[in-house]
Amino acid sequence: MSVQNAYDLWSASYDADHNLTRDLDHTVMVQMLAGRPFESILEVGCGTGKNTGLLAGLGESVTAVDFSPGMLAKARAKITSPSVTFQVADITQPWPTPAAAFDLVTCNLILEHIEDLEFVMGQARRALKVGGLLLISELHPFRQYLGGQARFTQDEETTFIPAYVHHTSEFLQAARQHGLTLQDLNEWWHADDEGKPPRLISFLFQK
Ligand SMILES: C[S@@+](CC[C@H](N)C(=O)[O-])C[C@H]1O[C@@H](n2cnc3c(N)ncnc32)[C@H](O)[C@@H]1O
């Protein structure tokens, strides 16, 4: 099943499913961004809008893109702030957003589905203003090494969504190739993860 079709299906239950990774990612966003104002934010892979509300409270304007109509429909129903614009876009293609327009670009739990990290870093760099920030929060590669992968179960059938393993060094190298400087790197555990490898990894890069 394609990534897009899988998320269209998952959109029906994404918000209600038991999902520690989804929940921890929101905590990461709050801890990394709370109290930091931005003029213009680009949210890449907004899904059902789990983080869009938070971003709408931080930015004067938010552009939230995703390629799953099902996920976007959920987000549009949830987030009615006039400062948020939703847009359909496949981020493996040149991004339809303007250049040098955003002071924050966020990618949460999406890059596992993207083979070519360098392309995304290049597009993020193009989208950012000078001095702008790129915040990435992803399933930690340690979890991927142990078989972790985005998946959901509906009607007792589990769908594994196509995913690529990206080592920590790949994120750093792809960012460096595009002149993005690492400001912060963190590893994150959910309260239920005691004794386990970190669940998420986050990177904060600056243009
Ligand atoms: C695990 S969900 C994360 C959604 C949201 N960021 C969150 O943290 O809840 C991954 C999202 O990435 C989107 N996605 C995956 N590949 C994409 C692509 N090539 N272009 C745009 N969106 C994509 C999916 O449609 C899905 O909504």
In short:
This protein is of the alpha/beta class. Helices cover 31% and strands 30% of the residues. It has a single domain (3-206), classed as Rossmann fold.
Question: Could you explain the architecture of this structure?
Answer:
This protein is 31% helix and 30% strand. The strands form two sheets. It has a seven-stranded mixed sheet, with helices on both faces. The longest helix is centred in the N-terminal third of the chain and has 14 residues. The mean pLDDT is 97. It binds S-adenosylmethionine. The site of S-adenosylmethionine has 21 residues, from helix 1 and helix 2.
Which percent range fits the helix content?
Answer: 25-40%
Small molecules bound in the structure, each named once? S-adenosylmethionine
What is the third-level CATH name, the topology?
Rossmann fold
What is the CATH C level class, in words?
Alpha Beta
Shape: globular
How many structural domains does the protein architecture include? Answer: 1
Strand content: 25-35%
So, CATH architecture?
A: 3-Layer(aba) Sandwich
Largest sheet: 7 strands, mixed
Can you identify the CATH superfamily?
Vaccinia Virus protein VP39
Number of alpha- plus pi-helical segments: 7
- Overall average residue pLDDT: 97
How far apart lie the N and C ends? Answer: 36 Å
- Secondary-structure-based class equals alpha/beta
